[in-house]
Write a structure and sequence with these properties.
Elements: H1 2-9, H2 13-24, H3 31-43, H4 49-67
Helix pairs in contact: 1-2, 2-3, 3-4
């Protein structure tokens, strides 16, 4: 996460997205990786609406899993 954030802050957002996606290969449901990926995708011109939507859905599923079943 720190490496990706450093890249993003220095104007290398595309590389930051690549770093986060590579990290997610080892930890696909890691909430910090996902939230940072979502935030970066929102600012990347090459990210499609589908990319952004899928990242949000995955993040929502991870957050829901922490909260347990709805009441």
């Amino acid at each position: 996460v720190n490496h990706a954030l450093a890249l993003a802050r220095t104007g290398r957002g595309k590389e930051a997205v690549e770093v986060l996606r590579a990290a997610m290969a080892n930890a696909p449901d890691h909430p910090l990786l996902l939230v940072n990926l979502v935030m970066l995708l929102l600012t990347r011109p090459e990210a499609t609406p589908q990319d952004v939507f899928e990242a949000h859905v995955k993040l929502g599923r991870v957050y829901t899993s922490f909260a347990g079943a709805p009441i």
